[in-house]
Structure formats: structure tokens, C-alpha cells
Design brief:
Helix content: 25-40%
Order of helices and strands: EHEHHHEEEEEHEHHHHHEEEEEHEEEHH
Bound molecules: flavin-adenine dinucleotide
Shape: globular
Number of helices: 13
Number of strands: 16
Radius of gyration: 22 Å
Strand content: 15-25%
Distance between the termini: 23 Å
Largest sheet: 6 strands, mixed
Length: about 400
């Protein structure tokens, strides 16, 4: 059995950034497990663009060398915003080769506590012991499927996260549920790929980002005003963006207010560049699907206004709901020892759970550190906070 001081599970932006930071701490043996950028490669549609801006798309690196610009120069790969997902994946893989060249791509199947820390079981049966474990496995396990759709087979209803390639829907009728970026961008891609699409959402209106006010604040009032109102992390509207970029400050606010600000900062919304692409896609707002039934190879959906349509597929752009008990590799005993609120772990300094030595970073950290943790740009805060806490305790 091998041993290490820190085992990082997950090699997406958070796991890679944490590894790059912790590898700089002298005397620490850090191992990193997981397939690099797997969620971005497998669970997002080809042709997608990132919604975050240029600075917020950088994966934080302690020596500031592994930037998007450095990647472009090294690879001769030119692009700008919005960043295409395949370029972001290539950037992430380049980051991994430079910062974590000895990445162990095996999947972690189980993590148990043991007297010296944790025991980690890998997919090929090998075991490893580590004093600390940092969980950085993202939101893939939390794809949310509303109850009304749960009994339908995946041939007629599926979550956006299971699709990489929408080409099989060419010529098909597809209802998309949701009004966030994922639902809207899937709508645009399906429409452009020859599907007949309708978007159905409960919200009264679609919130489009970069509206007139935001464009004025960004471009007309000058760089100083822009910097005062918007943090480079790019989470939340003018003003709120600065607060969201400071999790330590946000933590001091009363819980109720934090939750309100969280909802406002990351409400379902679509990037402005989707407006034109969705011009010919019908949207039924203020509507819910109340019942569904499979009809042969199709699915009949009934809305709350009594109207019905029979389509080939229902695509659920219904987002993700954090519930760490869905991380299958954490044993039920371990999950039970983690103090949680609504499925989110309650984290202390250094993003440590109530189980000493067990840290969780990325979206599950949002209950404790705010919505910044749901985005690539939050990896800088998370990695630095981890590093500080670990150096202190070592
Ligand atoms: C459609 C869509 C669009 C998005 N667009 C943006 C955007 O524009 N900007 C932005 O900032 N954020 C965006 N996000 C959010 C994005 O998912 C997160 O910002 C980012 O992926 C968080 O990185 P992560 O490292 O926490 O998780 P992930 O990127 O999901 O990485 C998790 C890693 O863990 C590994 N893993 C999982 N289970 C195991 C296991 N058992 N053993 C070993 N390894 C494991 C996987 O291989 C994977 O590589 C988007 C999300 C979606 C769904």
C-alpha cells in the first residue's frame, strides 16, 4: 500500500489548481487522482461556449505562468471570448501536463477513515493511505431531474449533462425544460443542428446577461468604475460581484441575507450572445410540465394550462442540486460524520469538513463560501485557503 500526505480526488479546474498550489509546499507528498477535465470533455455539449469572461476562465496557478495567454503562445492556438469549450479543455489539459504531470488517472472507488487519516481504494483494487483528502469531483453527481420525469426512460427524457453530441436529434422534436444557460445554449445548438425545439420554463422572463445597464457600466463609464463594480472573478451583477469575490467578508453576513444574495448572484440567466441564436425558437414561459407519458418512441407532456404536445424527447436543463451523499465513493459512515446543511457540507477555514483532514472544494463549498465556489474563478480562493490551512496545521 502506498502512502501520501494529501490525496486530491478530481482533476478538473479545482483539483488541478489545488495540486499546483500544494505541490509548492515543501515536504508534502501530494497525489492527484482522476481523469483530467473529464466533466468538460464528456458532460458538456460540443460547440458550447463558456459564459465566464476571460479573467474568470483562467485556472489559478501559484506561479501565475499557466494562463490562457501562455497556453495560446505555447500551443499556437488563438481564440478569444466567449471561449469555446474544446479550447478550454485543451487549456486545462495543458495546465495539467505542466503542473501535475504525474497525475494518476485512476478513479477513486471508496474513501474510508482510518486511524492515520484515510484509506483510498482505487478502481484496480490498489489502496493508498493519506493523512488528508481533498475532494474536488465537481457537480456531475448532482444532475437534477424533477420528480415528474423520473419514471421516463432515458430514450425520451434526459438531463443536459449526459449529452456531448446533439446530432442524433436532427429532424426530431425536442422540448427543453429550463431557463438557465445550459437549457438556452442547448436550445440554440439543437435548433442549429436541425431539431424542432421548444423551450418551456417556469420563470416569467428570461434573464439575459450583459443587458443595457451592464453594458453601460462595463464599457461606457471607464476602466476605474468597471473595476470598482466588477471583480475579475465575474460572479454576480455590478457591486455584488465585489462581495461575491470576497468569501471571508460574505461569511460575516447573516445566513438569510447570504442566501438572498447567492440567489441573486447566480439566478438562471443566459449569455447575451444567445439572444440572436434563439430568435426562431419558441419559448413558453411561466409554464410547468405537470404530467408526462411515454407514447411509443415519443413522450406526451401536459402543461399546467392543460395544453399538450407529443415530442421525440424532453431535454432537462434543470441544473444541479448539491447533495454530497451522492458522492458514491464516500462511505455512508463517512457522509454521516460530515455536518451538512441541505446537502452542502458546513466547511471551516481551509474548506475542511467537520471530519478532520477531509476537505471539499468546488460547488459543494458554496454554502460556506458563496457562489464563487461554483465557478472556475473560485479555484484561486479555494487553493490559497487550503494551502494556508494545511501549512498552519502541518
Ligand atoms: C453546461 C455548463 C457550463 C458551465 N460553464 C461555466 C463557465 O463558463 N465558467 C465557469 O467558471 N464555470 C462553468 N460551469 C461550472 C463548472 O462546472 C465548474 O466551474 C467547474 O467544472 C468546477 O471545477 P471542478 O474541478 O470543481 O469540477 P469538474 O470540472 O467537474 O472536475 C471534477 C473532476 O473530478 C474527477 N472525478 C470525479 N469523480 C471521481 C472519482 N471517483 N475519482 C477520481 N476522479 C473523479 C473527474 O474526472 C473530473 O475531472 C459550467 C457548468 C456546466 C454544467
Amino acid at each position: 500500500m502506498t502512502t501520501c500526505d494529501i490525496a486530491i480526488i478530481g482533476a478538473g479546474p479545482y483539483g488541478l489548481s489545488a495540486a499546483a498550489h500544494l505541490r509548492g509546499v515543501k515536504g508534502l507528498e501530494v497525489r492527484v487522482f482522476g481523469e483530467p477535465m473529464a466533466f468538460w470533455q464528456r458532460n458538456m455539449p460540443a460547440g458550447m461556449f463558456l459564459r465566464s469572461n476571460w479573467t474568470a476562465t483562467q485556472i489559478a496557478c501559484p506561479w501565475e505562468a499557466l494562463t490562457l495567454e501562455a497556453y495560446q503562445n505555447a500551443a499556437g492556438d488563438r481564440f478569444s471570448t466567449p471561449v469555446p469549450v474544446d479550447r478550454f479543455v485543451r487549456y486545462g489539459l495543458w495546465y495539467q501536463r505542466n503542473a501535475v504531470s504525474d497525475l494518476d488517472q485512476r478513479k477513486v472507488m471508496r474513501v474510508e477513515r482510518d486511524p492515520a487519516g484515510f484509506q483510498i481504494f482505487l478502481e484496480d483494487g490498489e489502496e493508498c493511505r493519506s493523512r488528508r483528502v481533498i475532494v474536488a469531483v465537481g457537480i456531475g453527481a448532482f444532475a437534477w431531474c424533477p420528480p415528474v420525469f423520473r419514471d421516463l426512460p432515458t430514450s425520451v427524457a434526459s438531463h443536459t449533462s449526459v449529452h456531448r453530441d446533439f446530432s442524433r436529434f436532427a429532424g426530431k422534436q425536442v422540448v427543453i425544460v429550463g431557463s438557465g444557460q445550459s437549457a438556452l445554449e442547448s436550445g440554440a445548438l439543437l435548433h442549429e443542428g436541425g431539431a424542432v425545439v421548444e423551450i418551456i420554463a417556469r420563470s416569467h422572463q428570461i434573464h439575459w446577461l450583459q443587458g443595457r445597464l451592464s453594458r453601460t457600466l462595463h464599457h461606457r463609464l471607464g476602466a476605474v468604475t468597471r473595476r470598482l463594480l466588477y471583480a475579475p472573478t465575474d460572479v454576480g451583477p455590478a457591486g455584488l460581484s465585489q462581495l461575491m469575490a470576497r468569501p471571508n467578508l460574505l461569511k460575516r453576513l447573516p445566513r438569510g441575507l447570504r442566501d438572498k444574495l447567492w440567489n441573486r448572484a447566480v439566478r438562471p440567466a443566459g449569455a447575451r450572445w444567445l439572444v440572436e441564436r434563439l430568435r426562431d425558437v419558441p419559448m413558453r414561459l411561466d409554464s410547468s410540465i405537470v404530467s408526462v407519458a411515454q407514447v411509443g418512441a415519443c413522450v406526451k407532456v401536459r402543461l399546467d394550462d392543460g395544453s399538450e404536445r407529443t415530442v421525440d424527447h424532453v431535454l432537462l436543463g434543470t441544473g444541479y442540486r448539491v447533495d454530497i451523499s451522492k458522492y458514491g465513493f464516500l462511505t455512508p459512515a463517512l457522509v454521516q460524520s460530515i455536518s451538512c446543511a441541505n446537502g452542502y457540507p458546513r466547511l471551516k477555514e481551509g474548506l475542511e469538513t467537520s471530519v478532520s483532514g477531509l476537505h471539499i472544494i468546488g460547488a459543494p463549498a458554496a454554502w460556506s463560501f458563496g457562489p464563487l465556489m461554483q465557478f472556475v474563478s473560485g479555484a484561486r480562493y479555494a487553493s490559497r485557503a487550503l494551502m494556508r490551512a494545511i501549512i498552519e496545521k502541518n
